[in-house]
C-alpha cells in the first residue's frame, strides 16, 4: 500500500473556480474526485492508497448540503489516522460570483426558489467552519484561469518541498483589501512616485521607479524588519503544519510602491530558502 504524499481538499464558493483548480491538480498528477460527500472521503483515501496513487485531490462543496457539516470531523478523523489534508479554499466577491453564475445560466444549488444571493448566503454559512481551517485561501475575483493555475502550481506542484511557501501580493487600497491575505502591510508611509512626473506612467517593475523607492531610507528598513518577522513566524507555522503564507503589501493604487517592494521582499525571502510566488493584483487597473 502506498502512503499518500499529497492529499488536497478543494472547496469554496460556487463560481470561485473549484473546477478549474481540479483540472490544474489533475495535470500535476493528482487523482481527482469531484463532488464527493464528506462521509465517503475515507473510502476514497483507502482506495487511492490501495491503488498506489500518491497524490489525491477531492472536491467537496455545498451541493452535499447537510452532509457538508461533517467535513471538518471527517478530516480530523483522518488526521488521527495519520492522513493529513491540505485544504484549498476558493473565494470571490459576491458581485463576481453572481455574474459568473448568471453567465453559466445555472441556479445556485442552495437558492431553491429564492434569489441567487440567498443561495450564496446559505453557502457562506455552511462553509464558514471549513474556511477557518483552510491552509490556503485564494481570492479569484481578479484572477483568470491562467493566474489561478499559477497560484495552485506554486502551492502544490512540488510534493518534496516541506518548507514554507509564500505568496507575496501587491495591491491597491483603493480597490479594497485582499480577502485571502494572512499578513497585510501598508506602504503608504513611503513617498509616492505618482507625484514625480517622469515616474507616474511607469510601474514598480521599471528600474527608475525601483531606484526611487529603494533610495528611501525606510524602504530598506521595512524589508529587513519584515524579513525578520517572516523568519520568526516560519518555525511556528511549520510546527503547526501550516505551509502556506500570503503576504499582501499595499499602496494607494497598487502600481508603484507595493509592486517594487513586493518584488524586493520576494527576492529576500527566496535567499532564505522560502519558495515564493510574487503576484501583482491591481497592476494595470489604472
% residues in beta strands: 15-25%
Return the structural class: alpha/beta
Helical content (DSSP H or I, runs of 4+): 25-40%
Largest sheet: 5 strands, parallel
How far is the N terminus from the C terminus?
Answer: 54 Å
Low-confidence stretches: none
Number of separate strands: 9
Q: Averaged pLDDT, please?
A: 91
Q: Quick one: overall form?
A: globular
Radius of gyration: 20 Å
Question: Numbering strands along the chain, what is their spatial order in the largest sheet?
Answer: 2-3-1-4-5
In short:
With 286 residues, the chain is α/β, with parallel strands linked by helices.
Write structural notes for this entry.
The protein is of the alpha/beta class. The chain has nine helices and nine strands. The protein has helices at 18-27, 41-50, 71-80, 94-104, 116-131, 145-156, 207-214, 217-239, 257-270; strands at residues 6-12, 31-33, 55-59, 86-91, 136-139, 165-172, 183-186, 244-251, 275-280. Helix 2 (41-50) links the parallel strand 2 (31-33) and strand 3. The chain starts with 5 loop residues before the first strand and ends in a 6-residue tail after the last strand.
Tags for this model:
alpha/beta, four-stranded parallel β-sheet, globular, 286 residues
What is the element layout, followed by pairings?
Elements: E1 6-12, H1 18-27, E2 31-33, H2 41-50, E3 55-59, H3 71-80, E4 86-91, H4 94-104, H5 116-131, E5 136-139, H6 145-156, E6 165-172, E7 183-186, H7 207-214, H8 217-239, E8 244-251, H9 257-270, E9 275-280
Parallel strand pairs: 1-3, 1-4, 2-3, 4-5, 6-8, 6-9, 7-8
